[in-house]
Amino acid sequence: MTTTVFDLIRHGEPAGGPMYRGHKDDPLSERGWQQMRAAIRDRDQWDAILTSPLLRCRQFAETLGERLQRPVTVAPAFKEISFGDWEGLTREQVSDRFGNHQARFWRDAENHPPPNAETVQAFHQRIGDAWQQWSLALQGQRVLLVCHGGVIRMVLAHVLGLTPGRAMAGFQVPYASRSRVRLDHSEYGLLSSLIHHGPLDHEP
């Protein structure tokens, strides 16, 4: 049996404050850098680091890779979902401009996407394809994936067999939080397990 372990970490606080950011390419704030540095422990060991191409993930991943002397690969498919016309707007602004559409999206993302956005179904498919590709390419390794809240939700949807809409609304993913997924490849097939999701203090 071959075991692969993925640690997924969401980026820290971006510059510009809370908003539907999606593909909007803001860097981390100073507080975001502090959050990310605090989320990495001295005993962490990875063979490879993957990152979203967006600055709020990539800049920290590249800095960490240099410090740990580990290869860093930009994986464009792990970019956050596009929120279309909501990008760059706060929740309050979306509510003012789009009425109850925001509430309907969070209740049922599959049937109420934001205008001109990537659908949650397409996002789920994109992340699923990338997850399969990289879990095979890095089989047997310990991998850090620096990514986004939506990406982590869709990975967990595939691991736990959830619908994309249920996963989108079903997990809290704070800035710089970590999740661990274990993949056991055996002659009987692939077993995917969520080992940890939540505050770093409780991670095994």
Automatic annotation (TrEMBL):
The active site is at H11, E80. Keywords: Gluconeogenesis, Glycolysis, Isomerase. CDD domains: HP_PGM_like. Pfam families: His_Phos_1. One of its GO terms (molecular function) is phosphoglycerate mutase activity. Substrate binds at R56. It comes from the Bacteria. Its EC number is 5.4.2.11. One of its GO terms (biological process) is gluconeogenesis. Belongs to the phosphoglycerate mutase family. BPG-dependent PGAM subfamily. This is phosphoglycerate mutase (2,3-diphosphoglycerate-dependent). It comes from Alcanivorax hongdengensis A-11-3.
